[in-house]
Amino acid sequence: GEAVAGEPSPGPLATLTPQQQRIARHVAEGATNREVAVRLSVSHRTVDHHLRNVFAALGVRSRVELSRLLAREGGSGVVTVG
To answer: pTM score, two decimals?
Structure first.
């Protein structure tokens, strides 16, 4: 859909699945893939897979770039980590 005048356009994170958003948030907070896996009760390979897809979808190449992007976004339209 197209943005409606007066409504904020969704950030790039809105294109991610809720699970990808959770993983991206944890990684941006400095968690390792294994730590994220434990927190979300999934395997570290699942985290690896989702993280590769997150990087591709957002056009970032590193955890640092991901962290910077999330810091700029400020969480608009993103599932919170909890």
So the answer is: 0.77
